[in-house]
Design a protein that fits this description.
Layout lengths: L1 H10 L13 E2 L12 E2 L17 E5 L8 E5 L4 E8 L4 E4 L7 E6 L5 E4 L9 E3 L6 E4 L5 E5 L4 E8 L1
Antiparallel strand pairs: 1-2, 3-4, 5-12, 6-11, 7-10, 7-12, 8-9, 8-11
């Protein structure tokens, strides 16, 4: 039995270096991707990530498929800005376009439904922010956003990460 294990170990040396989701690794460009070239990820050797300008140094790892990394996404921004806008019963420009924006959160400060979208906001095609004070939606877009109030003029607060 010991001889059989020794023969298997000699024939299949990569079995000894198999990686699991608990012991992740990466390969750099130009490497073949075989396990002996695997560089373990840990506190001494963090995953090397190049962030886009203004990303603020934080990332999220997409592990949609358990045990694999489907992507590394910049998360958070270096800057944060807030504002308030009074939204009318007609489409109201609410958030200007901003290159490099990571996300914008629009919070309803009234008890009236607010509908938001890119372009011209309407009550039938806009995304609903329910008429509850403090109800909010976060949009991961750099595009301009317009909102419309279901009734009268109502305030929304804006928080942008860029």
């Amino acid at each position: 039995m010991k001889n059989l294990l020794l023969i298997l170990a000699l024939l299949f040396p990569t079995l000894a270096v198999a990686q699991t989701s608990r012991n992740p690794c990466y390969t750099t460009q130009g490497q073949s991707g075989t396990m002996p070239n695997c560089i373990g990820v840990g506190t001494a050797t963090p995953l090397p990530v190049t962030l886009p300008s203004g990303a603020g140094g934080a990332v999220a790892i997409d592990q949609t498929t358990p045990g694999t990394t489907n992507g590394v996404i910049a998360k958070g921004g270096a800057s944060f800005a807030t504002s308030q806008v009074t939204v009318a019963a007609t489409s109201t420009p609410t958030v200007a376009a901003r290159a490099g924006r990571i996300a914008v959160t629009i919070t309803n400060a009234s008890a009236v439904d607010i509908f938001c979208q890119t372009g011209t906001a309407t009550l039938t095609t806009g995304d609903l922010i329910v008429g509850t004070k403090g109800a909010a939606k976060t949009y991961q877009t750099a595009a301009a956003i317009a909102c419309i109030s279901a009734s009268g003029s109502n305030v929304v607060t804006i928080a942008e990460s860029y």
